[in-house]
């Protein structure tokens, strides 16, 4: 992708628009879940599929979009994503029942997948190695802004303009983003290779089945027929995917990427980091509710995590450009682990400030970890595979989210039942169970520190041709 006549910082501004849309929309929709149950006269189990469908489709399609981006060009697929996200958002605002809402969320996820799979690829292709960390840090900052303002914006829209407004607000942002990307983002030709439809389909079925098993296995029962079928389906289609990819001339995923030490260990670290992060973000609101904090105060307390990331992520990116990822990401993961272990020391008398301080420390650790880690992964990938590399990174992120929520909720629920069976008081059982879940998340972060440490130190490396 030529940088001639293009300002890389204007290109980054176009990418930031796409990066901020997904987090805002996701956090707003989570706030609106209780409203959906009332409006569509349904139950929380059915409404949960509004988020579940989005997450399943988003995660499972990411690799396909990464491959298409390498073939068609990153700008083109990014613009398709903005259009798809905007149009599906407009249709979502006209939903007449919960099933239409769920189906259209799948289409919205397709648009989000195109956006998310291309952002890191575009940034890496236009920024020189000595500025790549800074640019990825600013992009991470925009994601934190989306996560921070989403709940507040969602509450305002729901209270004043109705549930439809949480979707049609995406339309003007998407149109502006499309036009701006058309103006400032340069075209790239892509690679003249054939698309691998069978690999794409088998990977989609593999990952969708796996995520369905992880997310719903606790509800169905881990040994139930539904769980066994989804797990077996996942294993079978993973085998099929590997066989296909080793036979076709132009595979969807280039397995030679896994031979790059920094790429492989960086992605493993991403998976572990997001498992720890989403265990924390999923369980902490329940802790705050148990401690008697209001919804408004809960929102303020939870904002301390993305707010600190917003401040630290760009600084972390600048340091990554100078010192590489190995030490920074390791330090970040250790800080995150420390924060999670400190969360396990909270009591029923803990103050709002005490909790916010721990969440802020977790935000510091995540910001120090994520930007250098992302920069190292993208910097280690060949130029003609930046789309697939970006998509694989995004896939690891989303799988980590699902696994973190599933593991965290499973540990908390099972330990809570165990302590209640031992005749612990309800308060004591709750606090001990959630502490054990936090400790588990802290262990994920410590393993993440190890996988970050054993990678190669990628510093000022241009993607290889």
UniProtKB/TrEMBL annotation:
Which residue spans traverse the membrane?
9-32, 44-65, 77-100, 106-127, 139-159, 165-185, 197-214, 220-244, 300-320, 327-346, 352-369, 390-412, 432-454
InterPro entries named in the record: EmrB-like, MFS, MFS_dom, MFS_trans_sf
Query: Which SUPFAM superfamilies did the record assign?
Result: MFS general substrate transporter (SSF103473)
- Pfam families this protein is in? MFS_1
Keyword terms, alphabetized: Cell membrane, Membrane, Transmembrane, Transmembrane helix, Transport
The record's NCBIfam families line, in alphabetical order, gives: efflux_EmrB (TIGR00711)
Q: Know the name of this protein? A: Drug resistance transporter, EmrB/QacA subfamily
Q: Which organism is it from?
A: Thermoanaerobacter uzonensis DSM 18761
């Amino acid at each position: 992708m030529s940088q001639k006549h293009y300002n890389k910082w204007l290109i980054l501004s176009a990418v930031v628009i796409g990066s901020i849309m997904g987090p805002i929309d996701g956090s707003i929709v989570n706030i609106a879940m209780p409203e959906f149950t009332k409006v569509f006269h349904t139950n929380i189990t059915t409404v949960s599929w509004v988020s579940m469908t989005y997450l399943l489709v988003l995660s499972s399609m990411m690799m396909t979009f990464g491959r298409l981006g390498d073939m068609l060009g990153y700008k083109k697929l990014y613009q398709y994503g903005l259009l798809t996200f905007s149009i599906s958002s407009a249709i979502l605002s006209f939903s007449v029942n919960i099933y239409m809402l769920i189906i259209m969320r799948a289409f919205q996820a397709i648009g989000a997948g195109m956006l998310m799979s291309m952002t890191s690829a575009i940034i890496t292709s236009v920024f020189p190695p000595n500025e790549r960390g800074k640019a990825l840090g600013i992009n991470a900052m925009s994601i934190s802004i989306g996560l921070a303002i989403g709940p507040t914006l969602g509450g305002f829209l729901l209270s004043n303009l109705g549930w439809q407004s949480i979707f049609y607000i995406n339309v003007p942002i998407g149109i502006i983003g499309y036009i701006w990307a058309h103006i400032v983002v340069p075209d790239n030709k892509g690679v003249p290779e054939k698309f691998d439809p069978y690999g794409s389909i088998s990977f989609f079925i593999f990952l969708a089945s796996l995520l369905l098993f992880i997310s719903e296995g606790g509800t169905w029962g881990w040994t139930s027929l539904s769980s066994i079928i989804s797990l077996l389906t996942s294993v079978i289609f993973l085998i099929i995917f590997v066989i296909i990819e080793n036979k076709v001339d132009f595979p969807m995923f280039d397995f030679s990427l896994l031979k790059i030490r920094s790429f492989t260990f960086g992605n493993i670290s991403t998976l572990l980091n997001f498992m720890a992060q989403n265990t924390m973000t999923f369980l902490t609101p329940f802790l705050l509710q148990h401690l008697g904090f209001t919804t408004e105060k809960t929102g303020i307390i939870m904002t301390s995590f993305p707010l600190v990331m917003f401040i630290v992520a760009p600084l972390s990116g600048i340091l990554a450009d100078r010192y590489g990822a190995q030490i920074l990401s390791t330090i970040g993961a250790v800080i995150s682990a420390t924060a999670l272990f400190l969360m396990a020391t909270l009591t029923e008398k803990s103050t709002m400030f005490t909790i916010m301080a721990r969440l802020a420390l977790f935000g510091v650790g995540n910001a120090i970890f994520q930007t250098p880690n992302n920069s190292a992964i993208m910097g280690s990938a060949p130029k003609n595979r930046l789309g697939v590399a970006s998509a694989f990174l995004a896939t690891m992120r989303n799988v980590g989210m699902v696994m973190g929520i599933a593991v965290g909720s499973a540990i908390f629920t099972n330990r809570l039942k165990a302590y209640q069976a031992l005749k612990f008081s309800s308060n004591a059982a709750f606090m001990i169970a959630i502490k054990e879940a936090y400790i588990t998340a802290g262990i994920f972060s410590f393993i993440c520190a190890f996988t970050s440490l054993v990678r190669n130190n990628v510093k000022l490396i241009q993607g290889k041709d």
